[in-house]
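TA notes, week 10

Several of you asked for a full example with nothing omitted. So below is the full record: structure tokens for the whole chain, then the designed sequence directly under it. When grading your own attempts, check the secondary structure regions first.
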């Protein structure tokens, strides 16, 4: 008899627990949307951030030549962050230079093409500088 891998056992345990104990393992609130036009994405962004959600993932793509977005917002804490979408390469570079000079770092960059032109969506988060004081 073959033995199952530790990963498979953990996965099966997690699935069983999520069925038997709904809401206990995966209780973190989140909202996911796909197929959003740039205007719809902006509306969803405004709505969810106003309700305490943080954008944690965004990816741009095209379908039938139209620019679309898939995005994930989570109810998680975090420092200051900024996001931008529908940026050309030059606009992305300008945003990158601006935000990194203000102490932000890119945590997600999505590149995609719209009518053969490179476009970008990105998330920058404020860098947290940790300081450890050791006194003996």
């Amino acid at each position: 008899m073959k033995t199952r891998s530790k990963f498979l056992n953990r996965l099966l345990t997690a699935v069983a627990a999520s069925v038997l104990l709904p809401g206990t393992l995966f209780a973190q609130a989140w909202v996911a949307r796909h197929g959003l036009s740039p205007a719809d994405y902006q509306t969803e962004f405004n709505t969810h951030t106003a309700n305490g959600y943080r954008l944690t993932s965004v990816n741009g793509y095209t379908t039938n030549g139209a620019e679309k977005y898939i995005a994930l917002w989570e109810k998680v804490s975090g420092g200051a962050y900024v996001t931008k979408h529908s940026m050309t390469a030059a606009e992305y570079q300008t945003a990158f230079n601006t935000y990194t000079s203000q102490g932000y770092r890119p945590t997600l960059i999505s590149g995609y093409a719209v009518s053969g032109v490179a476009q970008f969506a990105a998330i920058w988060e404020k860098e947290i500088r940790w300081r450890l004081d050791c006194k003996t």
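The radius of gyration is 20 Å. Use that as a sanity check on your answer.
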